[in-house]
Amino acid sequence: MKVLAIGSTFDLPEVYIFAGLVECGVSVEAVVSSDSRLVEKLEGFGIRCTVLDFRSKFDVRAILSLRRILKSGDFDILHCLTARAVSNTLVASVGLRAKRIAYRGTSGRDSRLSPASWMTFLNPGIHKIICVSNAVRSFMSTMVPASKLTTIYKGHDIKWYQAKGVVELSEFGIPQGAFVVACVANMRPVKGVQHLLKALRDIPPETNIRVLLIGEVRKSADMQELEDPAIAPRVHLAGFRADVGAILSRCQAFVLPSISREGLPKAMMEALAIGVPTIVTDVGGMPEVVTHLKNGLVVPPADSGAIAKAILSLHADPELAKTLGAAGQRSIVETFNVANSVEATLAVYRSLCP
């Protein structure tokens, strides 16, 4: 079986899923963007990479280049990892025998009334849509036949996140001995970070609980709490960091307070894999992974009071925090691991190309 993985930067789970497929005897090649940092890792697993940037959902230059790749490769499966990969591949592969698979990582945005949606996930030329969670699958089932949909969790491996080097939290202005609650996200409104910040109003300053935001933060109407003198001194900004794992390993808790459209957030999976006690909202695929009081804490979305209560419960009960952190890591090892993702993906391929 010959597969072309068509994406952009590729993340670690994607790299290792395709590496695992190679180990299973699948021939895999990849189309990557010019800013991908994992090309060497892909090629190290025997996956030949071609650099091709999709500048839009209908990029004539890219379509012509991709058409040449497809015709010379005679692929059985075209596995598209982004919306732009889907739309350009649908055009480039017209008349070819390959089966087309689309990866879907979020809910929302698509609509039967949107022409853009028919260029991608609603297009009848898609043979299968791999949804990253049942929440995404449920959303897509309102527009796409159920027979086209399957859920495959994007598995992780705890070895990826073993800290390399040491990060001192004092670098971010955090005082020694603080109970540090991390949030890793691109700070968009749907991530609900404003509700995490509001939670500090219900957390006494004497607890020495600090919030560390990792990722790009834009001060806007949605983040006005950063100007609140009762909140701002207890919030620390790390900005974008490549060493997220090393930072999280020094934190006492992780919170992802999303309010909508989550599929299976990488930051949550990373925190679980590292063993950081994790608090998430009951949104998207997050409660499919985190079960309240089993391997983390689940709170309602947009509820700063509930977030504060959850943080305080971990602060007040170190044994609970330790138990939940260990259980979260165990859930990655036993269930949400990359080996299961490889097995499920291979089953999809075989169903399309028996």
How would you summarize this macromolecular structure in one to three sentences?
This protein is of the alpha/beta class.
Total count of helical runs of at least 4 residues: 13
Question: Within the CATH hierarchy, at the fold level, what is the topology of the largest domain?
Answer: Rossmann fold
Instruction: Tell me the CATH superfamily of the largest domain.
Output: Glycogen Phosphorylase B
What's the CATH architecture of the largest domain? 3-Layer(aba) Sandwich
In the sheet with the most strands, the strands line up as: 3-2-1-4-5-6-7
If you compute it from the alpha carbons, what radius of gyration comes out, rounded to the nearest whole angstrom? 21 Å
Order of helices and strands: EHEHEHEHEHEHEEHEEHEHEHEHHH
Helix content: 25-40%
Q: What's the level 1 CATH class of the largest domain?
A: Alpha Beta
Q: Averaging pLDDT over every residue, what do you get?
A: 95
Principal-axis shape = elongated
Query: How large is the share of residues in beta strands?
Result: 15-25%
Return the structural class.
Answer: alpha/beta
- The span between the termini is 10 Å
Provide the number of structural domains.
2
Number of strands: 13
Name the poorly predicted regions. Answer: none
Largest sheet: 7 strands, parallel
